Batch of 3 targets.
Target 1
Amino acid sequence: MAFIEQLTQDFLRTKKLPHIWCPGCGNGIVTAALVRAIERAGYDQREVVIVSGIGCSSRAAGYLNFNTLHTTHGRALAFATGLKMSRPELKLFVIMGDGDCSAIGGNHFIHAARRNIDLNAVIINNYIYGMTGGQHSPLTPTGKKATTAPRGTLERPFDLLALARGAGATFGARATAAQPRQLEQLIVRGANHKGFSVLEALSPCPIAYGRRNKLGGAVEMLRDMKDKSISVERAAELKAAELEDKTITGVIFSIDAPEYAEEYYRSIEKDKG
Amino acid sequence: MPETKPVLMQGNEACAEAAISAGVRFYAGYPITPSTEIAEQMAARLPEIGGVFIQMEDEIASMAAVIGASIGGMRTLTATSGPGFSLKQENLGYAIMAEIPCVVVNVQRMGPSTGVPTAPAQGDVMQARWGTHGDHPIIVFSPASVYETFYLTIAAVNLSQKLRQPVIMLLDEVIGHMREKVLIPEAGKLLVEKSSDKIPSDWKPYDEKGLTPLVPFGFGHYYHVTGLFHDQYGFPTGDPPQVERALDRLHDKLKKYRDEIVLTNYIGHKEPRVAIVAYGCTVRSARAVVKKAYWQDRLPVGLLSLQTIWPFPDREIEALAKQVDVIIVPEMNMGQIVGEVERYACGKAKIVPLNRYDGEMITPDQIYEQIGRWLS
């Protein structure tokens, strides 16, 4: 059996398909990259847990054949923190959307980063609240239109990875749905990294974001993502002005620092001894 | 129950120690007066016994972390007070819906809002019942002493595990901060229910046939946990008959174990004409009244104290109302439980509220005065 067919059989709840996502949505591409990454990382199915919040992207958990925990809006990382502390041997992937992670879940995001707890955050950023029909999020670029910003948002977006880095995360990477192989590789690297890892996966939402902002359909949006992407290595050779319109992809930062769950259990072992 | 070691303990401390005795090994919390001693006690004790203490970034996260750890297989507890209890409601509803056991302690203080943080009150009775949205079941215990706090906390942990249902310990500032003698049983002699380690091969997380134990994540049962209405495997459903069944399921398990859940205690005259119905620290003043009015003056007076306030002790109130002319309901709020008493008394007795909401306790004299009025 081909690799991908075997994976589909083992790691996807095929009876739960078709999924709820719209035509042209990038969530499926990112979810597929996650499934391949889990296989590449060599994890046992039993030890993998998928945690998610609320929103389109968070529905991915229901389609994946692991222990899956679909939590409340913005709180996925807080649930995951409790689970990881109770069972540090488990490998947790936390799927969130841009609004879920950086608006309502912003506090949990910075504190998970600060603790450097070994969770793998996969944030699918489509620049919009999709499930509720297209409201602006903290990652919507300034000037872009949304149902709650009909004249274009005046707000400035977060740089999610700079936020994570500032808060203490020790691994940050970015890729787009136009580069599924790179996504997969970066998820594996994040998983192998000990500490809080953040992967920002840029993904098209042609229905709730693209259409309103005249960005074309899924194909045009993916092409645009690809055209604007530049690897972190190439970006290093360019001047700031040349990078203005670009999306830098690859591993943006990777730092060694003590991981929280391991430190906690080590400290209580010392008590006992 | 064999009781051996008498110890002088604070109410909050007793709550923490009882939780540990009942097998709680995970605490997530956020500092708030007047419950902070519970967190401090847990921070000191849990690491000593291989447990996990974590101070989270807020109350919402504390509740979430507790649920996460329960899914990992640990027994869990979190403690807070009014403003924090408001924040916990979101994920408390999740735990009820997803049937994840946990114990939530609310050491009540005077509200609304920031209120008087150090003053006692009983204003969260209805919040404990209806604080989270939707038509959910809830179990709430309200201890009247440090001793009761110890034993009800153990009962809370046990029931929570058995019914896969969050249980609320509704303390108040008086009970949380007072020091009293507690008789602690020897280790191993407590009635702590063990989790079942035998999992049937056809195990389903939300079996239609009835309650199944929670199998923690990481053991090869790839089920789904969600706050959405779900089928017996945990997968989302919007199918009307399934939705109705799922909501009935949540309520039915409490109905089935009603007699184990609903705890009350009557003291006083065998044929009372006037009864007091009280819960929490107010029971203490009521007990002093019964001591004087019945034990000393032999007046036809009695006290029904409610250790469980939700589900409400409906049958007990019904029976009491048939016996007496008057039921006095002292509460340190503007009248919350009194409405329920009225509802189940069905007009058989006159219901007299006695309220105080200035941040001070109701005194025995205040209750005695009321009794005198109705007996003469």
Target 2
Amino acid sequence: MDFVRNSRFFAIPALVGLFMLAAYWGIVAHYRLAISPGIDQAQAKAFISTVKHSLGLAEVAPTTIATRSPLMGPTWLTLYARGKLLLRLRSSLPTFEAASADILSQLNSQTMLRRLPLALRKELRIKLDLMTGRGPVLSSIPLAFSLSLVDGIDGLGAEIDGREEHLLPDDLFREQLLGRFQPMASIPDFHIGVDIVRGAELLQQKLNAPPSKALSYFRFRTQSWVDDPQSAGEALPVVRLRVPMKTVTRTDVRRAVISGADFVLAQMRPDGRFTYRYFPLNDEKDLRNYNFARHAGTTWFLAVTFKRLRMERHRNAAAKAVAYLANETLPPGCNLPQRACVGGHRYSDVGTTALALVAIAEYHQISRNERYLKLARRLAEHILWMQKENGDFCHHYFPDKKQKKCDAPLLYASGEAVLALAKYHAISGDKRLLEPMEKGLDFLTKTKYDHLVGQFFISEDHWTCIAAEAAIPAVSKLQYAKFCGEFVRFGLRAQIEDDDVQSDLAGTFNVAPFIAPNNAPPGSRTEANVATYHVQKHHGLPTTETEESILAAVRYLVDQMIRPVNTYLFAKPKVSVGAMMETPVRPVVRVDYVQHAAAALVIALPLIPQQSSSTP
Amino acid sequence: MQRHHRILYPILDLCLALAYVYIFFILIPSRSAAFSVAAGAFVVLTLASGAGIALGGKWGRRITVVSACGRILGCLSFIGLLLASAAYLHGIYGAVGTLGAALSMVVAALSIQFVGLVPFFELLLMRKTRA
């Protein structure tokens, strides 16, 4: 009896568990989109050719669109002129054949297009979008609503009284709604999901609906195609706002490096600084809160690029940027005869000083210009002075008080400091640096992790591994190679795979599909992984995992770097080529996003197969 | 019911009630009045469970059984909401990702330990003492 009673008692949790499982899969099925196949490339090409013909941009008579592909919703044709939406036409007819004919007929009745100057007409970009899936969203809970769209892939629609309006993924991007919802008023910098407040306002306006009337929202998936500005009549598939590159060759990587470096170069100002933030949607530039560490990092990247590609313009730009570092970034309290540091009048962190030294050392190697050697020595002296007994560094220095502060460590500073010492050792041969370098690397690869949590996780230690490579052969231990191997493996756990639900983002590092991945980590981690590869090779360790991680990230970086074909939403298409946005869906370009990405690519170049393409 | 049960469980419930008050009203107070009311009710149920055990007897037992069942239901509802959120994200994105899965599991495991375990043992104790 007891057994039966006890069985009943424990059966309740089991039944509850089963109910929850069933409810879980029920919810999944309700919100999952059923996607229709859409059209194929030939159909898209025929359509875009016809549009070009109608615009007077192609003389060849287009092929007919004969297939009757059934559609799940509207078809849109959009014409963009220098990033601005010039014209959008929509058809809701049920087959692609009928919808495209309808749109072309609407297009032919647009007399204003014929009045456009030919030069502008030639610049027009043609975009075709088809709705291939549609599903419900939970709009009553703001956070759930904001997470209801896959960033850059889904559009948002609303319905009222039988009328519908849509915000295509392009519209959400142009309005900067992606990744911009602010769920907690107390943390204004934290954003996640789509800014549904603004999105709802826009749909309300489009529908001309009174604010008192509740709209019924839905999400939809599109299949998108864009014309190729370099090939007449071609239609290229668009995924998450860009034409994806599924594979890359060494030539592609080299091209990406040059365009990244040239973008940086074009953003250089007469005083030697770079535009700190660039907004490609409206060609705005911002120098506020200029960051010397990122300036130094970018200078280093230009020098490394010259070293690999030998293009004089990159060396000239590096020279100008180094001059700015030497002349403008040393406050009086930092500019002492025995040592020097980089920063403001009241504060300097050791990481910034270290990166300045890295840039100067690299520039010295490519130029053999001894002008900055004395400054390099004083910067190195400051870093040595900031080192603690255990090998770590004090990270903060107050030039006005001439005081250092050793608590509240910064994330990257110690790794940057060791890298700087290694780089300075390479140009000076100063043997006094060997022990501090070794102590620093010992701390970063062992002492720092001598606690329980350290057995499970690795911090953002990419500078450590770059430093470990730079220190070879002067300082080299198997321990460093093993640590960096662990760093690579730790990163692999978060690296998106090709068969993942975010396969277009394969190669980058992210832990949840509802967070748009930041584009700095794939660059900085790949810089570290390439360094790790060399450290592992030096010690005869296997490099397979490291190479896999590098190749996957390289594909991602090349794909993310803005190419001419992907500039249809940008105000100055030529200027934005080579830029790297903050995330795949956030049109803000900070100089270090480009620097980390392109630096990773340039140092990875020899590892990329020459002929055959690399696959993630 | 043994004497140490009459001391241990009320103390545990009192500590848990204080922790709930701290978490839901001081550390992360909700903007939603409904959530605050639910959290307040949960605190009352927790205190009632402890009081019932301390009181003993027929009414004490009834109070404990009802409040412990309420707390377990609350715990299950919370896990249900968590699962519904994960299912929603799974439906939208095709998967919840490593972070989503890890966070869901950690929060579910913590809520079982922190909210559901004590009332579960209290119910077992009530069963035992009835027998």
Target 3
Amino acid sequence: MGDTLQALLHGFEVALLPMNLMWGAIGVTLGTAVGVLPGVGPALTVAMLLPLTVKLSPVGALIMFAGIYYGAMFGGSTTTILLNTPGESASIATALEGNKMAKRGRAGPALATSAIGSFVAGTIATLLVTLLAPMVVEIALKFGPAEYFALMVFAFTTVSAVLGASTVRGLTSLFLGLLLGLVGIDGQTGQPRFAFGVPELLDGVDVVVLAVGLFAVGEALYVGAYASRLPEVMEKITGSLWMSKSDWKRSWPAWLRATAIGFPFGSIPAGGAEIPTFLSYAVEKKLTKFPEEFGHGAIEGVAGPEAANNASVTGALVPLLTLGIPTSATAAILLAAFQNYGIQPGPMLFQMQGDLVWGLIASLYVGNVMLLILNLPMIGIWVKVLTIPQPLLYGGILVFATLGAYSLHESVVDLATLYVFGLLGFAMRRWDIPVAPAVIGLILGPLAETQFRRALAISQGDPSVFYQHPISATLFAFTALLIVVPWVVRRVQRARAA
Amino acid sequence: MSTDAALRRSLAETALSIGVLALGVATAVGTSMLPAEGGYARIGPNFMPGVTGAGLILLGIWLLYEVLSGGWRNMPPQDAEARGEHAFHPGAFAWVSIGLFAHMALIQTGGFVLAGSALFACVARGFGSPRFARDFAIGFAITVAVFAFFVLVLTVNLPAGWLAPLFRLIGIE
């Protein structure tokens, strides 16, 4: 405990250095902006900025990337409430009540409860990260390759098979990512795989090209083809921004409950901020004293989901930092940013790179305060940002997207690959195949393979290591339950209905 | 849903399912050309590719099975209006693509600024902006600012291309 406090205080010394404060401010501002702008998300933004890592110090760059990561959750609510087009999937639940509130002239309180709720949830979640991370590190230090492999299989399963509309489409996306992750030189034997003698492919498929292709080019092709000629209705902020006494009274419990729902969802490698937002919405709808308002702009229905998504994305930093397991596309790209510096997140990160990891955690406290200021008193600026016409917005997105891909190796090959991944992203979006599992598969696949082969090398090729170690056996059992239980439940329900 | 739309949907789903299956088969073929020896672990660099190929083949079969038994499950509505969108706009798709190809063709000759401006204008056109020249000018202003930022602040060189003399004149190099 005392050690943690000391480490955190030291982290604040790092986070409060003027340079790092500046990177943090840039990060949360960019994060808010991309959260606000439809069509740009945190995964895309961090991916576009990854090539810059060669020019920046690891601490500054990671503080900035983390700011983009959780800042986007603040900004997303603005678009959702005023435009009814959720900027991020984690904001869909907010749209249910938020836009209704705006239509009734209560945009101000809706934005306020989002921003303050995000701040409250983000800060409590950061506190929990601070307390929990060192404990998880203690446990993780006992993990061997078999346990890591089991954990990664668990994460693969939750992000692809359990969440989302279809297990088979989620898995297809994951395996596509795993396949792309195999391209290049095998790290353990030096054997080139699926490179077809093309020198550009020996280095593997860059996550920047994949993520930017799927998220920017694919998105532009899709929105252009299907949603570029729709009328947009933006609600105005009329009246006071401030919440009334009853708004406060109704928001507080929702924020706290949502934090309690969101944080665990983020911190077990279960991925995705969507589920906790919908759970929180359902809980608020059940507990409210004003059920008649639900569906017409109930403030709890905004306060809950907005707090839940912030608690969840902050919670996701626990498995990312302590175990090296990303549970969302953005977290996977953050992991790639660490790798660009030759740093592998995991328990050793806390021992070898204390400055970096505690500076990063301290920057979360600072960033949340900055975000509260950015998203409440300065809300007017973001409303202006929303008025950028769609043609110019997407023109700009693609200029930066191609810049990100080109600046990797100054190669037209990367631009052509970018377009191919864009077509893939278009098809996946159109036929409802989720893209996040592919990005996670690309980043986590090679790590999982390494752990798998290491575990077998230690056991001299005996596969029983995976079920004789209690931790890895438990994780595999959990994974099996995750797949089997929903399937059985559905069967039973269907049998009952029949 | 009209029968025409239903047919188009199942054609697309069939094509995509077969694509996944074919990718799995190609992966399996590629795997068979990889060495198997693995030292202590007894599995070599061909193990994961084999698993991935097998997985893709199974997923392809599963997807095909869904097509044949009523179509992919839990799909968003085939009708664009029911999704809150409009019908496929081929012009938009084409202009975004043209922009990206123009960018590829121009970046190493015309340079970053001209390639980016052309891309910007084409994409804006695809999204329905009627003012190509104005959009090109906006793209030009944005890309010149980015170019200056990269060259002067980050000291990363982007291709100046045909505009190199101009940049030299105003001191960005």
